[in-house]
Amino acid sequence: MAERRRDTGDGRGAGETGAPRPGEALERAWNGLVATARRTVSDGLVVGTSGNVSVRVGDTVLVTPTGVPYDRLTPEDICGVSLDGRRVLGSLVPTSELPMHLAVYRSTDARAVVHTHAVHATAVSTLVTELPLVHYMSAALGGPVRVASYATYGTEKLAENMLRALRDRTACLLQNHGTLAHGAILDQAYDRTAQLEWMCRVWLTASSVPGLTPTLLTEDQVAQAGERLKGYGQP
Q: For residues 100 and 180, what is the distance between their CA atoms, to the nearest angstrom?
């Protein structure tokens, strides 16, 4: 018997459960990915085609293609790979940083990843091995943000270094390179990216005042803030 369909109110229709069809879920995810990628440019977190964004839908990872300006991406440019890196959707070549994205998905329950070359975060990555605890929002990223040791972009070595820095964290800095953050959805991964860049900017600004040293929080203070953050926002 053919599956019965009903009107969902948005002109698309769905099965009895109301769940989106596989192709529809991929389309929605791709549109969200493109919007997020464009936001990294408009918010000044990347320049040109630097940085990349991905989102996981089942066992398929949608990812920005390499070398294509985000404002030129269309629904027909969908780019998807399997968890082992095989291209399964589209004809464009995936981002050169695919090893980092796949490493996150294989090692965590993340569903979205945002990688940027944000100015202040990249500057901090050249100065320290861990972002000083200048603000309690470090707790939102799991604690003190580590800096992954430098390795050539797009390599498995960089992916390995990143995973070490990400242990028990949802974001890290990449030495002389940029940032990487992940989340359950694209908005969360992007928000963590923006928060990290903001904290780096705060620390650099405070550190630039001659004769003064920024007051830092202790790990206990950050942990206490983290407990309070668990109840932040609307139920």
A: 9
